[in-house]
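Task 17 of the worksheet. Students: predict the tertiary structure of the chain below and write it out as structure tokens. Keep your answer in the requested format; marks are given for formatting as well as content.
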Amino acid sequence: MQGAWRRVVYIGLYELIAIVMASAGLMLMSGKGVFDSGALAVATSVVAVAWNGLFNSLFERWEARQATPGRSLKRRIAHAVGFEGGLVVMLVPVIAWWLGVGLWQALVMDLSLVVFFLVYTFVFNWAFDAVFGLPLSAQSPPSAG
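Model answer:
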């Protein structure tokens, strides 16, 4: 699976699982009910979907220019850290506003989720590639001959 369809399937599966997990985590950390935590998880998912599409497009563009094809452990870690780092910058103000907490408390909550999501992102990407195959950007070019 390649191109835009790959991104749509990737983002849809990733976010569906993420909303369920984030709702539970936010509920536990904030003491808020299912409605507040679930609605915040959906709102953060909207931000994450936009970031996911942009980040993965940029990452694959960069990846296609690398001398070594494939997705090494180092490249997968860079992908997960880059994605989650950008997301923290965008989500801390949203969490603070939504839950009525200070930026520091929102940062602590978000960093707790980040620890989980770093592992989740890494495992999800690896599993996704195993099921659907590597994108063209990570495949070896056909040999001339």
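Marker's comment: The first helix runs from residue 3 to 30. The chain has four helices and no strands.
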